[in-house]
Design brief:
Layout lengths: L4 H26 L1 H11 L12 H11 L1 H5 L9 H18 L2 H20 L1 H12 L9 H25 L5 E3 L3 E3 L7 E2 L7 H17 L4 H33 L2 H29 L23 H23 L3 H4 L16 E5 L4 H6 L4 E9 L5 E9 L8 H7 L3 E12 L5 E11 L5 E10 L2 E3 L2 H21 L4 H9 L3 E9 L4 H17 L8
Antiparallel strand pairs: 1-2, 2-3, 4-5, 5-6, 6-11, 7-8, 8-9, 9-10, 9-11
Helix pairs in contact: 1-6, 1-12, 5-6, 5-12, 6-7, 6-12, 8-10, 8-16, 9-10, 9-11, 10-11, 16-17
């Protein structure tokens, strides 16, 4: 019996496209939690990636815009994508186990590009390479990169905003890293994380990359547009901050500043787009559309050699192997919780007594797998209060950067510096700590000394400890691969390793020199009475 044309077409499509169907199913199952994290981050209040949900739609549009170029080439197999998929397997496994978003994102990109390359061929991959790479704009950057970049741009935006106010006749002074003080302002203008400008930069770069891809212009003009977007975003964000100041100056109320702040971000993004498009028109780089002058294949049939079929089979096997690992791996965060030896942490010494404070539920949830302790000490002689916040964790996601959290809570940071603290008891330790001078909106100053610790190694910043722990995890991955027979021993060693965060805070009590000296003296005394310090 002769088959109908429709049935033959379906069978032919399935015969050619079944590896792609397998790849889509495997990617969906393997990365479903990562996709859920993307969605959560896209919808997070004051997050950096509210534009992220538009990225898949933009990618679909870019693929559609290339429909004629894609139709000119037949689907075939290629072995070049197989190494990418094979390389993604150990990266995914270790990323899944350590809950490393960076490693999972890296493996996802390798799998997507490798699958397209393996199952659709080199020519189609060449056409789709930029749209596929564009997916990275929806993936949140690692916390270390976000923190460090945000602080730099935050300082620059604050500095430029202060200069704008001064230039327009309103004398102002930049205080610390993120405050603008002026007698004309109803209250200090604190540039928080949401106003740092990094969110605007990420959004502008995302849409600039799409615009540059879609226009027909020489390479140097496209590069110029991308370079131009960076200072543009910083300047427009600084102008927005200055406009928030103007709202307070002209109305004399802090409420007007807050109201303008809530919607001014959209205004800043709109101004950026207008300026960018105007600049593109000025340099005559505004012809929108994909070039269609591409070579076409001489036949519509795909030529697939036995070698290419074997490579395709290997790629499918690698994907199924990843799926098997993904369904059986128990993430480290699910089993390796931080543990604080609460009974060994002294509750009082000398003239100091203390009481524990219940840690807020949202803080516990934000710190994920960490074990936390909040204890307030009071000096019986002069009444000084010092708050200890201590945290133990085995994964980097449990540590949040106070340089980001403090401005996010509405307080300002007027000064930071790395300071040494020498400990002689119970054992010699040289601590590298960060001193932060905090100024609240009501004018009350305070001081924070904090550091991170693994064994006798101390780290003054969150970025330092995150980098160190990631290096240790990469070393663990290498040791596990090269000493596979000892994997159980190595796994127990990794589960037993944890890092600590020590944070001490006191309100301003006297002079800055006396307050810092008193805080350091308290830290030394507390550690001397904690015999297991650094060895928990």
């Amino acid at each position: 019996m002769k088959k109908s044309p429709n049935t033959s077409t379906v069978h032919r499509m399935l015969r050619v496209g079944w590896p792609g169907i397998v790849a889509v199913l495997v990617i969906t199952l393997l990365y479903r939690e990562e996709f859920a994290f993307y969605w959560q981050d896209w919808n997070r209040k004051d997050g950096y990636y509210s534009h992220g949900m538009l990225v898949p739609l933009i990618v679909i549009y870019m693929v559609w815009a290339n429909r004629k170029r894609l139709a000119a080439h037949a689907v075939t197999r290629a072995w070049y994508g197989t190494p990418l998929i094979l390389a993604a397997v150990p990266i995914y496994v270790f990323g899944k186990w350590t809950d490393s978003g960076m490693l999972l994102d890296t493996s996802l990109m390798l799998v997507i590009i490798g699958s397209v390359w393996s199952f659709a061929g080199s020519k189609i991959t060449r056409i789709l390479l930029f749209p596929l790479l564009y997916l990275m704009f929806m993936m949140p950057l690692p916390g270390t990169v976000l923190d460090e970049s945000t602080m730099r741009i935050q300082m620059q935006s604050t500095r430029v905003a202060s200069a704008i106010l001064n230039t327009t006749g309103y004398a102002s002074t930049m205080v610390g890293a993120n405050e603008i003080h002026s007698v004309n302002l109803p209250e200090p203008l604190v540039v928080g994380v949401a106003c740092s400008g990094f969110k605007l930069l990420i959004a502008l770069m995302t849409f600039t990359a799409f615009f540059v891809y879609m226009i027909q212009a020489p390479t140097w003009k496209r590069a110029l547009l991308i370079v131009f977007a960076v200072p543009l975003s910083v300047f427009i964000n600084s102008l927005r901050i200055a406009m928030i100041g103007y709202a307070g100056i002209w109305t004399g109320t802090a409420e007007a500043m807050h109201e303008f702040h809530d919607w001014s971000g959209y205004l800043g993004l709109a101004i950026c787009f207008l300026v960018l498009f105007g600049f593109a028109k000025l340099i005559k780089a505004n012809k929108f559309g994909i070039r269609e002058d591409v070579e076409t294949t001489s036949s519509t049939a795909a030529e697939t050699t036995p070698a290419r079929k074997s490579a395709s089979a290997i790629s499918v096997a690698a994907l199924l192997l990843m799926l098997a690992f993904g369904l059986t791996i128990t993430p480290l965060k699910a089993t390796a919780k931080g543990v604080l030896p609460r009974t060994e942490i002294t509750k009082g010494f000398g003239c100091w007594s203390s009481e524990d404070v219940v840690v807020a539920d949202n803080v516990v949830q934000a710190l994920k797998t960490a074990d936390v302790l909040q204890r307030v000490f009071v000096n019986g002689n002069d009444g000084r209060r010092i708050e200890l916040f201590m945290e133990a964790a085995r994964d980097t996601n449990a540590f949040h950067n106070p340089m980001m959290c403090i401005p996010g809570s509405g307080s300002g940071i007027s000064n930071t510096e790395v300071i040494p603290i020498e400990i002689t008891k119970p054992r010699p330790v040289h601590i590298h700590a960060t001193l932060i001078k905090v100024s609240d909106l009501n004018g009350q100053d305070g001081y924070i000394i904090h550091w991170y610790m693994i064994g006798s190694d101390t780290f003054p910043t969150t970025s330092d400890i995150r980098r160190h722990m990631r290096v240790l995890q990469l070393q663990d991955m290498y040791r596990t691969i090269t000493h596979f027979s000892r994997r159980a021993e190595l796994r127990n060693e990794m589960r037993g390793r944890q890092a600590y965060w020590y944070r001490f805070y006191t309100d301003a009590f006297g002079s800055e020199q006396d307050d810092v000296a008193a805080l350091k003296s308290f830290i030394v005394g507390l550690i001397e009475h904690n015999q297991s310090f650094g060895e928990q």
